Amino acid sequence: MKRKLATLGLCFAGAELFAANMPPLVLVPAAALLLLLLFLSIARRSRYLPLAVGAAAGLCWFCVFSFMAFRPVRALAGQTASCTVTVETDAATAYQNGQLRGTLTVTSLNGRACYFKMRSNGFPAQEPGETLTADFALTDLPNDAYRASRLSRGILLQGEYTGGYHAGENSRAVRFALYRLRQNASALLRRWLPRDLGGLEAAMLLGDKAALPDAVQDTFRAAGISHLLAVSGLHLALLCGLFSFGRRRRFYRPLILLRAAVAVFYMLLTGLPVSVLRAGIVFLLVLLGDWFYQPIDLLTLTGAAAVLLGLQNPYAPCDIGFQLSFCAVLGVQASAALGSWEETHCPGRDAEGIKAQLRHAGLSLLSAVQTAALASLATLPVLVAQGLTTSGVGILANLTTVWMLQPALVLGLAVLALQIAAIPLGFAAPLAHMASFLLAVWLRVFYALAFWCAALPLARLYLPREYTLLVLALLGALALAYYAAGKLRWFLPVGAACAVMAVMLGVQLQKGVATLALVGTAGNPAVVCAQDGQAVVLFRGGEANLRAVRSYLADHGAAEQVLTVDLRRSASDLSFDTAEVWTTQVMDAYSTHTILNGLTLELYHTSGGNLAVIGDGRTHIAVMAGNAALDAPVAVDVLCAAGALSDSVQPVSILTTASSPRWLDQAGTERVYYGQDIPTLRLRPGRSLQIKEAQRVALQ
């Protein structure tokens, strides 16, 4: 097996990711099985020994590290303690006035020195870097969609501020000085650029998304190029590539030191996100190899980076930036290997003159297309598994815009340098104006291309998670089978045919299926019912719910919103996105309608509230606003609950987005399901009803 270190490192990270998502009781037998396979591989001198070593080492390290480092901290859950904490750089304005929310580094607990991180949703502070002493009620991290990501950043507990505040001295750590430098640089960029473009440049160059408009983020996400907004290995490589000139021996090693210094400074300046940290480790290892005039292999160095990241925190592979970064590298490496094969086997290797130039241009174009395609394909499983948006125009958008990133970064650096120089040197001010004008024009074209790609058909693709992951797993198994048989070249046509068949089957299976999603604020969400590319919105809440509905529809296939049913008792002025809006407050006490593809909508209007029931003749789902009092109770299968329950609705199950609803002790024997993000109901008319993205709540 070639590239043994690469295999070992990637299996090490894969084993840690597996362990992080498995129950603790599974880890011990899994580790024993891997150790047995390791001993057998050593005894037989198997060529798969690096694979067994990496998997066994990753799983064992996860168990040891969790027991030795994480378990003592998690044992503090349930206590209320006096903590001395430092506010970290991710702090943001909390929902309570005069407070922040974010990560806190605990340096003292009840007077004893310690060091761990916790998350708090509200504490008195003004800015990152402040040190304070206060009482916190410590609990375990909630089991939600953010748990794994927070563990990957070393956050082990949740802390609720309870009082006892005493201010301390501000921290003098280097990371806070660099954070303030980043904030000042971002402010300078935004001062000299239009509002939307300043936020875009600050995000791409400095990783500061605080002033990035939501519309810009949505555009880049729909175009499949949101990775350009997050500082990553691509940004690091482009900036450090500016110092790759001068390969003569006497300038060789000084340039290596300069590039290493630039890389380390940029990593620290951007706050060390995992994607930058991975790229920085690989880049520094490359420079180390250059220093000693040794050949380098990017995939091997990527495996080494995986081991180093996994050693400092076994939950690091749970970070989505880690997963996307490593998968993208694998896609790029696959493209490079394919490009080498094409260079060797494509006709015209001995051509000269114009024919050689045309061949080179054709291979370069092919390499660019297949690099974008394979990188997108490699990151697709991660995007689908995390429930993120996928784009059908990502390849086109990458080819259209990626080449514009480096000039945008260079012009941003020039604007910053000239603005700073303009203070002591007056003649630099006109140059700063010129550079900012050029940058604004460049970013305007950049954004126009991204907007054009995002407006294309199929820009937003909705891929069902379970089915898509199953198809991708089967295609991966098929590729491994062809690779083991030594006929990998035949996988492309066979895999393409299988993918087409899977898409056709998936479309057929989804035909007629209705998906009802609870979208918006916790405790009072709107309900979006989508079926066969059309959507009906049962609306309750306010402006925040309206924005959430628009975002949900855009991220889930851009279904056409054909009807809005306004269930609110007091209808404030909102601009709905459908020409047809039914306001239940002015409708009859009871009415029934046919919506979408044969579904029935029953509407009840009372002075205390409004009730909507969607059904297929066999299954019924209720949505209520206020407290509707009916003469006879309505029996339904699921109630999409809000702030109160009503005796007029008798549900078999209750679905809620509130973690601790006031009516929980009144729920009786009904099954209550809680989903924090976007819980959904999947209705197959006349056949089945499934609850997705929610967990059963144990009633007392």
How is this structure best described in words?
The chain has 700 residues and is an alpha+beta fold. It folds into five domains: 4-74, no CATH class; 80-172; 179-454, no CATH class; 465-510; 514-697, 4-Layer Sandwich (Metallo-beta-lactamase, Chain A), CATH 3.60.15.10. Helices cover 48% and strands 21% of the residues. It contains 19 helices and 21 strands. The protein has helices at 4-20, 24-44, 49-74, 147-152, 174-191, 195-206, 214-223, 233-240, 249-269, 274-291, 298-312, 320-345, 354-385, 394-401, 405-421, 428-454, 465-484, 491-510, 543-555, and strands at residues 80-87, 92-93, 99-109, 112-124, 131-140, 155-167, 514-519, 526-531, 534-539, 560-566, 581-583, 590-595, 599-605, 609-615, 620-626, 634-640, 649-656, 671-674, 680-684, 688-692, 695-697. The chain has an eight-stranded mixed beta sheet with strand order 12-13-14-15-16-17-18-21, with no helix packed on it. Helix 1 packs parallel to helix 11 (298-312). It is globular. It starts with a helix and ends with a strand.
